Amino acid sequence: MILIIGCGRLGASFAQRRVARGDKVTILDFDAQNFQALRDLPVRTMVGMEIDTEVLSRAGIGQATCVIIVSRDENTNIMIADLARQHFHIDQIIVRIDNPELRAIYEADGFEVISPILEATLSLEAKLEAMKGGGRADPDRGGR
Amino acid sequence: MQILIAGGGKVGLHLIRTLRQRGHVIGLVERDPRVCKQIVAEFNEIVVRVGDATNPALLAEANRIQADVVIAACGRDQDNYAICKMARKLFDIPKCVARVNDPRNETLFKLAGVDHTISVTTMVTNAIETQIIPAELTNLFTWHERMAMVEIELSEHSPVVGTRIRKLDFPPGSILAAIWRNNGPLIPDGETELRAGDEIFAVTMKAQQDELRRMLLGH
Known about the structure:
The complex is a heterodimer. Chain A is α/β, with parallel strands linked by helices. Chain A is 40% helix and 17% strand. The mean pLDDT of chain A is 91. Chain B is 32% helix and 27% strand. Chain B is built from 7 helices and 11 strands. Chain B has helices at 10-21, 33-42, 56-62, 77-89, 106-111, 120-132, 209-217, and strands at residues 2-6, 25-30, 47-50, 69-72, 95-100, 116-119, 137-143, 147-153, 175-181, 184-186, 199-205. The relative contact order of chain B is 0.10. The interface between A and B is medium-sized, with 18 and 19 residues.
């Protein structure tokens, strides 16, 4: 089972893709409204404050093969990442952190980190550079 | 001391007044511009930055004072957690104190190297248990988390009234240190006979506290 924490656009879109590939997915968010995007999909949704060992236990974190922490609130994300590792002993954790300083701290601690804003910014830059270099950016290659 | 305060709103304001009186040097990052304005008006020497206290750039600017200790006083535990992480890993501030609202989070803060957590919830609960609910055993003080100083008031129903202290079978690690009797202190010895109305000041191990209460009060 994959446990996703945070059902914003990123969490919801990732959940959709994993379900389409046949994974079992549980997704946790403090706001039930955010599950609208997942109506009709075989995803287990759970409403709860995420920084709470009891809520995480009920969400089945003990059975999760990996935990994807992608809420929009990065301070919440880092705290859950440490909880998942220290309290629940999860090995596979991916955590969303946009603040570059915090990102560096968590990468140094061995977490897998994604930074959507930073990654999109770099991608934009690459496309812009490609345009300046003459002609359009290659749409298939995008940029990193 | 150089003290960096992160967030806290009005709590931060009162904290600063107290700490300034004691001569500490303060740096502050605070979101509420009204609080910041008031602090600048009262103490023009304080380094104040207005904005998100978890923003590393603002923290770095306020840390111009080269803090010995950071106090993370925001209303949300996760913000205080982020502040403490950065204080330790980015700014090498030797000591961290964090306000923690959910007492269950205290363990995680300790694991992250936070030296002291202050939980208002725990404080209020303790106050209720020790002061507001009249108890025959009051925990006055906990020392190194395992020892306790307690106060026990003997009623006429207590099984030990009329008994000399040396006849009592104390739980391990417990001693009666003083008795308040007839509006005055009394340092007891083995021959002292306990009376109804005695207020006993005892030192005990927390694990033996209930046993001590049962021995002295019978319940």
